[in-house]
Fold these 4 entries.
Entry 1:
Amino acid sequence: MHSGPGSKSIIFVASSVLAFAALAGAQTLKHRPPAAPAAPVAPSVHAAVPAASEPTLPKGTSLQVEITHHYPMKAGEAIEGRLLHPIFADGKLVIPANTKLHGEVVRLQPDKKARWHARLMGDFTPFHKPVVRFDEMLLPDGPLNISAATASDGAPVLHLIAPGITPHKSFFARYWSQAKADFHDRMSYFTAPGKGDRALQLLYHQLPYHPERIEAHTAWSFELSAPVAVPDPPQDAPALAAAPAAPGNPETWAVHALLMRGLTSATARPGDPVQALVIEPVFDKDKLLVVPQGATLIGKVASAQAARSFGRNGKLRFTFQQVRFPEGYDKQVQGSLAGAATEKTQDLSLDAEGTITPRNRSSAVAPLLLTMLASRALDTDGNVTAQAGVASNGFGLVGRIVGVVAGDRNLAAGIGFYAAGLSFYENFLVSGRDVVFPKDTRIEILTTPLRAPVLRPAGQ
């Protein structure tokens, strides 16, 4: 079979194209540039799960820090404290109690109330309140910087614990028990450790001017002003078992929470709402989570009475009836106050029913004793100087020196009667003290669930 001229042309063109393509391919293989790096590929939803992120303390987390020894009252003074309570995040312990913190005294504020009261007693020291800020936390792996708001509500902490149920006593038995407790408290002032320092401070307060200091065991409550990532937290918190229940009685849960709003007997009325934020997870006797961190206790004021004249103190009692979980559902409970951390200066007491009231500080002995001593100056028998020194108990050391140096019986008696009158006013005429629980006061609630402890929403 013979090919025509047209077929030969087609064969020639095809051969030329193939030869050119082979030559081009050979040149490409010889001079191939290095391969470009592969573009990053977005991880798919089925990629390996990354390691868990560090736990973070959110902004607004409340901390309570206590100093363990005295510090001078001056701005710029470096201070060291310890964390009074553990901190939890997402139900896990991230910072244990007693963790050390470093801070400083930012500035001093005048304490007008303390100044006026001291001046009535002949003490003209310009008392101040320290404003502090803690900015460093010492963790096992090293220091951790934190951003926190300043705090000026420093005061020694009093830990209230509700006593067990006691048998009913008559009025005279209760009064006798209270008198014995007051006597032991007063005697502890002379027998408890640190009596040398207390004697020195007593002498200082007799002087017209003395150095100030920030007392040991002063505590401040403050909040984080920015989130803080905590590296390498300790092992998970152990399950906290509920309080053991007596045979035939329902299980009880000990819930640690912070008051979300301030509460005081001066303004509270029965029925007023009370809410508290749960800050530690609660586990039942089977080590199952029953109250998660972040839940809200909802209750109300059961009884309240404001302080009144003639030294009658206020009273306050509140209970909780509901737990609101972060998911939005509620559970009915019965809860009453079992403990609280308050300012020691309030000198509060807590009974078995959860009623809080300030202890009675009034004493009939002090005014009578001062009156008897003041009258000694009017006795014409004896040495005038000695009697003036005994009688002039008012206005501190200044009054005593003036009474002795002047050698005037009437002046010494006047100073003594001034002290007796001031003591009588403070013990009997001045209004009593109210119960004050500021915002973020730490409380412990003993709750009893009214239904089975199933704390998951329906359907799960």
Note: The two ends are 86 Å apart (CA to CA).
Entry 2:
Amino acid sequence: MELFYRKEGSGSPLVIIHGLYGSSDNWINIGKRLAEKHTVYMIDQRNHGRSPFDDSHTFNDMRNDLVEFFDQHQIEKAIVLGHSMGGKAAMWFALDYPEKVEKLVIADIAPKDYLLLKEDSQFYLHQNILLAMQEIDFSKIKSRNDVDEFMAEKIDDERIRQFLLKNVARDKKKKQYKWRVNAEVLYDHLDEIVSGVNIKWFDDRIPITNYPVIFIRGMKSKYILPEDEKLINEIYPDARIVDIPEAGHWLHAEKPQKFMEAVMLCC
């Protein structure tokens, strides 16, 4: 699959992989700052942004897309930075292609099965979001405010709605708004998105010491809990965990300066 991407700067390659509902657009400011030292590639993953939609959305798909991207752009080795779902995709890619990874930077996700958290897993939140996205009738939508009003009936959190609204685009052919997220396919693959790339997936290849690894954690987020530190160190014994106070799951947007400082520790 030929992924859409944005490119900034010059120097050693650095590839940024966004999370669920994200896109390269969310990383432009961070990418430009990292471009002072690196050639930065910000991709749109499959079923997101301006990249192609497909009927499949597994971590094997995302890994293979990255392999193809590296080959297309003749990237022999790069720093790989992944956030949330993109962080899991980055870990899975790095596991199978360690020779392509200079350093691995994982933003606010752990290599664990989040479905095991049951009601705290965020699975039902994402299920509700993706169902709401599928239910909207864009033929009746005249503005982004109309989208927000509809989504507000399903999703209370205004910050989440504002993030989702970044995926509303104008379809020039149909002359109406649309999602730049393939909600139906993401809904069908939500189990794997939430549970995949857990310690069982690494079972026969740990400990991993092929490349430096840094995890960046938002201290107001519940995605990397204190008990997850043992799990991370079991897989990546030399990994560093950097905490960003007062940051939630979208830590790169909430605390960009602190996030940059954390990334620059290894880059």
Note: The chain has a mean pLDDT of 94.
Entry 3:
Amino acid sequence: MNTWLLRILIPMLLGLLATGCAQQTVRGDGGRDATGDLGSPTAGSSPADVYIELSKAYLIENQLTEAYMNAKKAVIVDPRSSNAYLMLAVINQRLGQSAEAEESYRKSVSLDTQNPVALTAYGAFLCEQKRYADADANFRRALSNPLFNAPWVALHNAGSCEEIAGDTVSAERDYRAALQANPRFAPSLLGMAKASFRDQNYLSARAYLQRYAEVAPHTAESLWLGVQTENQLGDKDQMSSYGLKLRAKFPDSEEAKYLQTIE
């Protein structure tokens, strides 16, 4: 399974789900508001909410059996809850059960066609399956909801998917758009640092890495990018600093092994 999803997307989506799991807005004529449930100014509750929260908590602790059981309870007690099926989809994906995950994603989106969290997650799933056009369509649908309170998440994941697909121009466009919406969004800052390095704009890569370090702890990937960037800029002291941090914090990483190739 793509570690990008597990490392970045799932924690972001679980945080967003906390703002949306209780939203069940219905118009007076019995239809759903055109913008969908998530982010609606009037919220109701669902009996599934408590099980969704328990499932999230267990998933964060990597207790997958308990997470799955509570997600199943959520869809049983409220089979009309888009977010209950979303939770079940995320866990099935985490378990590597792709067919079951897709079935739950489809159900989640069918129950609320404008749920931006579900659409973003489904888009990431489709990207993992290399169905890039379908993935992008879901990201754009998520962004079409004016009540989506974190559009930078969909924009970043659209950019990540485009990068995986080899469309670096579109990826950079979406990373920039994500940072316009949220200038402190760490994944997109790192995305732009990588894009700048790829474009041989090393001063820009340095600047994005500095901004990244202000809002998030360094990863092996970001430290290795720092080593490479400072090597290109000829700053041996900064290059050494990044290298020392990489060896100290991530001694067994692939990136740490790369250090010997430029030293």
Note: The CA atoms of residues 95 and 222 lie 28 Å apart.
Entry 4:
Amino acid sequence: MSSQPTTQQDEPTSEQETVVDIAGLGHSFGDLDVLGDISFSVEAGTVACIIGPNGSGKTTLLRLITGLLDPDTGSVTVADDGDRRVGYLAQQPAFRPQFTVRETIEFYGTLVDVDVDSEAILERVGLSAVADRRVDALSGGMMRLLGIAQTTVGDPSVLVLDEPSSGLDPTMTRHITDIVGALAAEGDAILLATHDLRSVERIADTVFVIDRGELVATGGPEELLAETDTETLEDALETLSRGDDAVTVSAGLHGGESE
């Protein structure tokens, strides 16, 4: 693990601004409380990673941020600077199989009513060489790259990525991680849920730890390691996800101690 994530900064720059502000967010499915009283913010030009055990509420949180679900309590405010509010990549992206890669990007342009430079968008994610390949001929990794590309159409304020490297080999995983870091370096705000903790250690500016629907910790990777006295994020997550014995990391935690 490197001692400093590639995009992490010690202090926010004057150019950074809050693009996502979440206050007291809560959601239930029937009698099942999935999220409770979640509050945090994400700045432009940063990578914020959401980590936590399976079933902790990560995907529900992302769907609330994108507007695909309505919160029961609290609010989500997203800066509205582009032609598209939020760019979203689901865990299992689905595109029209008969379309080419280029046609897919152009199609998303029609959905948000903007003219798109498909060449420039595909160049950002390394898909220029397969621009005329049909979607149904793409590898799993290329499909995820296309998914990331479509999130940028319309210049949204924030890109929300749900497990963008799940099931991919280490080489493609690193490639996707590098692209995410590059997009943040260009000024995009990235909100990413993942189980790939090594990638989190590499690129995260901020890590939000969710357990049982609660935000139990937030801070940079090195802060979480220091506060939990662990050497890897895997060990830190295990420490932070022990129910009643969970450690609450003080650095930057919103709303006090977890319940």
Note: The chain is about 30% helix and 25% strand.
